[in-house]
Specification:
Layout lengths: L1 H5 L6 H14 L15
Length: 41
């Protein structure tokens, strides 16, 4: 079944790094976001 197969997917490196950064921020550590992306001026 499709739902069972989706459990075989691994998280991307980006998702793992984002989760680690969020956990560190939640623990009170200062996080500097150096990711690229859309700039809002």
């Amino acid at each position: 079944m499709l739902a069972q197969r989706t459990s075989l997917f691994k998280s991307s490196g980006t998702a793992v790094a984002r989760a680690a950064a969020k956990a560190a921020a939640d623990a009170g550590k200062e996080i500097i976001n150096l990711t690229g992306g859309e700039m809002m001026w």
